[in-house]
Amino acid sequence: MRPSFADPGARSRRDTTLRDGPLPKPNYYETLGVDRTASDDELKKAYRKMARQHHPDLQTGDAQKKVSEEKFKEVNEAYEILSDQEKRKRYDMFGHAGTQQGAGQDGFAGGGFGDAFNDIFEDFFGGQRGGNRAERGNDLQYNLELTFEEAVYGKDAKLKIPRWEMCGDCKGSGAKSASSVKTCPSCKGAGQMRFQQGFFSISRPCGQCEGAGRIITEPCSACQGRQRTYRERTIAVHIPAGIESGMRLRLSNEGEHGINSGPPGDLYVAIAVKPHPVFQRQGQDILCEVPIQFVTAVLGGKIEVPTLQGTTIIKIPAGTQQDKTMRIKGLGVPSLKGQGSGDQLMIIKIQTPTKLTARQKELLREFAKESGMSLDEDSDGFFDKMKTFFE
């Protein structure tokens, strides 16, 4: 996000009281609004903010422009010294006297100043330094919803993508014909205008041709001079087996086409997997709950269970407990890296009957008696154990 031109806050101002001799130079750290311990990044950030705040081109009125120009010079001078490690060291030791030796003549000495100034140029003028600049097309995103099975085993899909494409009639020139393109009379094809501002000159995109360096007298009738047309394309994409929700597939150069022969953007396919009524995914394993009768849990037996590949028979061992996990190898999710598949895990849920006939109740009482169990013994024993625990 581009920084705003907000007021950077309280800053020291030059004392304007009349006195004999010239006014003293302001403290460089105070000029930039930073501490003496500020890092290089903090200095650069502060410089950019102050330079935007006081740039003459952003002011209205000759008087305000003149004041801003002086302040802008101070900001540049302060950063030119503090962005150079040697100059900053001499300034910290000797003050302004230490900056007289070896200081640059034009205020652009030191690599840090040049980088920060380039950043400000881009902020002011959109980074457009030459005419007919190629621009990369925008990236696009398509949200694709898959079923649980499609995510596990993959699929080939066809996506309808609306996007800006290079105009086929004018081949991206935006003109009806080659004779319809004229050199801009204002900038003479350079795409930019140069202005003298204060102690240095700056360039900005030409206002007549908007930095293109050329003017189209007769635009293309198909794209109206935009160089691109809006069309819907059908794009084939392979969804690999084992993909998960939240993943994105990148299709290079399938985004919107660029301007001025710029490269196209990319297309991203964002995956969302719908939940399954029976199965859940845990990494490469597939989970499902399998209900069994309590008699089967006690005596054991064979039951039919569902899988994504159909039903299969598994053996329940006698004495199976609630929430026991049983495994079928190889029936899970394939690895995206092609390194085998996970397993299917079945969580056993024992069903307790709620409606019993008189005969069934009688048999269960006989079972309890044969086992030496009292129907209320366990309950009493539990509370006895709790009493012992709290004593």
Q: What can be said about this structure in brief?
A:
The protein is of the alpha+beta class. It has helices at residues 28-32, 40-54, 62-82, 85-94, 111-125, 148-153, 294-299, 358-370, 377-390, and strands spanning 140-146, 155-166, 181-183, 192-197, 200-205, 214-216, 228-239, 248-251, 267-273, 280-282, 285-293, 301-307, 310-316, 325-328, 344-351.
The run of helices and strands is HHHHHEHEEEEEEEEEEHEEEEHH
Number of helices: 9
**CATH level-3 fold name of the largest domain:** HSP40/DNAj peptide-binding domain
> Regarding quaternary structure, how should these chains be classified?
single chain
For the record, what CATH class of the largest domain applies? Mainly Beta
Distance between the termini: 66 Å
Average pLDDT score: 80
Going by CATH, what is the homologous superfamily of the largest domain?
Urease metallochaperone UreE, N-terminal domain
Number of structurally distinct domains = 4
Helix/strand/pairing category = alpha+beta
> Biggest sheet, strands in spatial order?
10-11-15-14
Determine Rg (CA atoms, Å).
38 Å
Shape: elongated
| Main β-sheet description | 4 strands, mixed
Entry keywords:
391 residues, alpha+beta, HSP40/DNAj peptide-binding domain, 4 domains, four-stranded mixed sheet, three-stranded mixed sheet, 25% strand, elongated
Report on this structure.
- With 391 residues, the chain is of the alpha+beta class.
- It folds into four domains: 28-125, Helix Hairpins, CATH 1.10.287; 140-273, Urease metallochaperone UreE, N-terminal domain (HSP40/DNAj peptide-binding domain, Sandwich); 280-352, Urease metallochaperone UreE, N-terminal domain (HSP40/DNAj peptide-binding domain, Sandwich); 358-391, no CATH class.
- 27% of the residues lie in helices and 25% in strands.
- The protein has nine helices and 15 strands.
- The chain has helices spanning 28-32, 40-54, 62-82, 85-94, 111-125, 148-153, 294-299, 358-370, 377-390, and strands at residues 140-146, 155-166, 181-183, 192-197, 200-205, 214-216, 228-239, 248-251, 267-273, 280-282, 285-293, 301-307, 310-316, 325-328, 344-351.
- The strands form six sheets. It has a four-stranded mixed β-sheet. A three-stranded mixed β-sheet has the order 1-9-8.
- β4 (192-197) and β5 form a beta hairpin.
- α2 crosses α5 (111-125).
- The two termini are 66 Å apart.
- The relative contact order is 0.09.
